[in-house]
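Wed. Picked up where I left off yesterday with HTH cro/C1-type domain-containing protein. The coffee machine is broken again, so keeping this brief.
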Amino acid sequence: MSQLDLALEAEVSAWHLSFVESGRLKPSRDMLLRLAGRLGLPLRERNGLLLSGGYAPVFADGPLDRPDMTSAMDAVRAVLRAYEPYPALAVDRRWRGPDP
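Structure written out below (tokens, as returned):
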């Protein structure tokens, strides 16, 4: 994606984006999140971008067995059960699957 395309997608001027890219202008938290969203960065990488920009992370990151992840894990297990008797596999970014 060109700088001009990204600027148009993020609804900022190419001048502004150029100054952010060259380090002549410090982007706001909102600008970093907007650019990350337009670039399709995963939430974990958006947190890294925010940290690099001097801001605290905004997206939760933790193990899948947390209490607030119960419904998400139940949904993953339900999808896997729906494929039975055929094989199916769900893995995270580290190629680990959910507990059976």
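Quick read: The chain has five helices and no strands.
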